[in-house]
Structure prediction request, 124 residues.
Amino acid sequence: VQLQASGGGSVQPGGSLTLSCTASGSTLNYYSVGWFRQAPGKEREGLACISSDDGDGSTYYVDSVKGRFTGSRDYAKNTVYLQMNSLLPEDTAVYYCARGPLGSGCPPYRYDYWGQGTLVTVSS
Prediction:
């Protein structure tokens, strides 16, 4: 199973980006998919962790991104998205997607397969 996160880039504060997560060799559709980030010198943190319709279909958001980030999934495309709005300089980090069993919640250790990460830089 290989996950690929894409869509990162450089934006000004207040801008928006949409990250995509795809998988080759397997499906994302029956698993929890989480979005995580890691800034230099900081631990990896869970941002938005999305269950599937086979689970409870819920999405967990960490407080720092609630109201700004939205996770979603397209089952037909086997793709999970993270829409990021109102970006702040402190959102600068490498963003990862990962797949885990249903009911994983958002702690990174519960996720088995990880993408390589995509860099998001928020700066004026």
User: Anything to note?
Assistant: The two ends are 37 Å apart (CA to CA). The chain is about 0% helix and 50% strand. The mean pLDDT is 93. Residues 48 and 61 are 5 Å apart (CA to CA).
